[in-house]
# Entry
Amino acid sequence: HTMRLIAAGLLLVGTLAPTLAIPPTKPPCCPRHEVFTECGSSFPATCDSILERNANRVCPDVCVRGCVCREGFVRNRDGKCIPPDRCGRDGGHRLGDSAEEESGIGCHRRNEVFNECGSACPETCDSIAKGGSEPKICTANCVIGCTCREGYVRNGDGECVLPEECPRHESSEESTKCGCNEEFNRCGSACPETCDILLGVVPRKPCIKICVEGCFCKEGYVRNQDGKCVPTSECSVPEPV
# Structure
């Protein structure tokens, strides 16, 4: 009798253990020009990859479930699927742009791009006008922000323009009118010769070696007590007052 009850219990337990079935899931609704896939590429084609920004990347062979661009479309930096021929326009971002969407920074001024590692001393119209006459010490720090596109420089109004569009400034040499027996020198002495020094009226002092821009006496001439450049042979001790 006990064995019959055990057998009946086992039979009852067996009938109370139904097989659980997983109901089919409905694929999500994908945005325009996208389709859902169970096994998409982990590195699908994008505007960046087409523009060779990521040409040497290594792509693991794994399935990614989700929405992907339809055939004939690639994803731009705004996350939208567009035809490949639209890459490189404003919607696809040009080569040289950086991750504006990750940073939340967008460059909307003409001829500017976002740069995650721009120069701390970018080229400007002023630096071009000086022609490198003033040595510039620049740190190698990366500066994040909007910079001028390649081939453009920033003018005095903060706009990015072509170098030939920079306003023409007279150079120091052109704007400085030197006197008789004088000539303009971008790197003259900080302690030029004078009649007083040559004649021993004033002692010769130690002179630091720095460039001084301005008008200097021509070779063979020195400045006299009146501030005029005269031949060294014309230097004379000033008469006592």
Summary: Residues 2-15 form the longest helix (14 residues). The two ends are 149 Å apart (CA to CA). The first strand starts at residue 34 and ends at 40.
